[in-house]
Amino acid sequence: MNCPHCGSRNRSDASFCLECGESLNVGNATPFERAISGQADALTTSPAALPPPTGDWRARFDPRRWPLEARLLLLVVLVAVAFDLYSEAQSRSDVAHYHTAEAAIRQQQWHRAADSLRPLLGKHYLLADSKFAEVNKLVLAFDEAYKAGEDAERRAQQWQAAFYFGRAASSEQSYRAASQRAQAAYATSGKLLFRRPDGLYLSEVDGSNARRLPDSESSSYPYSISPDGSRILYSYEKGQGGVVYYDTTTDQHLTLPATHSGPDINNHGFLTNNGKGVLLSEYHFPGYGEEGSGAESQNSFRYYDVATASSSPSVSGSILLPFGTNPYSDTSLYYMIDSDRTSAGTRDPVLYRYDLATRRSERITQVKGMVQQAQVVGQPPRLLYLTKEEDGYSLRRNNLSGEDQQLASLPNKSSRYPSRFYFSSDGQGERAMLHERNTNNESHSYWVDLGSDTVQPWPPNAADHNSTCQLDHWGRSLCSITEATDHSQLELAAYDAAGKLLFSRQRRGSIGTLRPLSDRYFIYGSYVYDGNAHDESKSDFYLLDRKGEQPDRQMMTLDTETGYSFSPSLTADGTGILYLEDGTLYISNLSGAPRLRVAEGVDEAWLLKSESRH
């Protein structure tokens, strides 16, 4: 008979279990019934399900034999242990997430920090919620800037890609290679050079990484910039202390002091075409500012080779400016020395060629008369110059081998004061524009064709008007024209080499400007005086697409405090424009949007490597 308590087998006539000592009484069953019950157990129980033999310790721990209360208690204990183990693991995970987020925040890895803080949201774990809110703002700003950079890159607007990728990289450099993409966009967009009250600054096109150039000050001005924008030559100590040569690729600089300095000294500097040579010119005006001083100026120059760090001896003479927009050549320059006065009271200057390699001078020719303005033009080089005569001026050309030819006789149209002349060219030395201005508020321009050696008043059909014209790189003449008696209205017009009018705009005002940004886009505007007691003025400037694909668009409004010398520049890819407005430097699409702020507190700016042919 099996014990109902421990399951041990007992004799059929036993009244208590020999194993556990419990009663084997199964109620009021008769011995026969108990016998029958024992036989039924033996018949219905399979060998596998039979309890272990009497005395097996495992039987005591078989939960199937435990009371229901014991089973429930075991389940509760197991659940409690499992929950405790889970809580411990979760706590360790939360600590690890929080520490990872703190480390990521210190390293400005905002996306990693946000991913680490996100599992802690809603748990009130330390400052996880507030930190996630701050970090997530930076993540969203990064993603927005990065996407804008990708969109600009697809539109081939590298300056805008540089702006947005640079903004993203300044927030998180390593994420999605933002820094590398910004650097690639910077490399094709050029750099900015701008002046603030404390000196000259160089930065990326978006204004980032701005650093003040060595020895620069409020009066420093870039005398010369190499064509690729890699080298800058600028003044220091108000032009009386020399120049600074600065390499933008290496951040190395070289300060070249002047031979002399003082209030009667005016120094200047020029870069050669390859940017590796420096010409230092010195203009000495003895007794400058002293009443009754009749001393004549004394001019000299010297050449400095940056590669060899060697300087030539000082050479007496006046450097002739190169014709057009190109810097000096890498091989030679031309200069003039005034000879002694002739019996007629004039000077006949002698022209020299200076070889930059040998540091030697070669006498070329002597020109007649008192030279007012002279420049070297074209290839092969020729000398174009003006001489003062009794009844006016003579425009002459010298082929630098002794042959001298008069191109035109220009009367002095000022009854009281002498005229001053300025040259401009198309950059190739094929055409020139001679502009005359005098203090009688009169101005006249003359077109000079160096191929046919012809000179004519310009623009066509406006000989009786005041005109101020200059040539641009594409050979177009850009003119500001006013009537001789009425200066309240002016015409801004552009002509081709044949004198055909390309476009014109009528403007109110007495001073106007028309400047090319490329062969397609122009900036034009004028001063408009309001006539009040302070004679203040406003000037509106417009962007013009000469091909008519979009209407003229107003770019900016300047007042007299910001000045009239702003220099808008087209970006290297021809899709954006950089301009100054009320001391703030902006860059925008030609369509006007978006307008991005680059720098503040700026007096003047230059976009290096900005020359475009679009």
Radius of gyration: 45 Å
Most strands sheet = 5 strands, antiparallel
Oligomer: single chain
- Secondary-structure-based class equals alpha+beta
H/I helix tally: 6
Terminus-to-terminus distance: 110 Å
Overall mean pLDDT stands at 78
Bulk shape = elongated
Helical coverage, percent range: 10-25%
Low-confidence stretches at least 5 residues in length (pLDDT < 50)? 42-50, 288-294, 532-537, 559-565, 610-614
For the secondary structure, the number of strands is 38
Portion of residues in beta strands equals 35-45%
Keywords:
614 residues, single chain, 6 helices, five-stranded antiparallel beta sheet, five-stranded mixed beta sheet, alpha+beta
Question: How would you sum up this structure, described in words?
Answer:
- The chain is of the alpha+beta class and 614 residues long.
- It contains six helices and 38 strands.
- Among the domains are: 1-48, no CATH class; 69-179, no CATH class; 237-315, no CATH class; 317-325 and 336-411, no CATH class.
- The strands form nine sheets. Strands 8, 9, 10, 11 and 12 form a five-stranded antiparallel beta sheet that branches.
- Strand 8 and strand 9 (277-284) form a beta hairpin.
- Helix 2 (68-106) runs antiparallel to helix 3 (110-117) and helix 5 runs antiparallel to helix 6.
- The protein is elongated and about 160 Å long.
- Residues 42-50, 288-294, 532-537, 559-565 and 610-614 have low confidence and may be disordered.
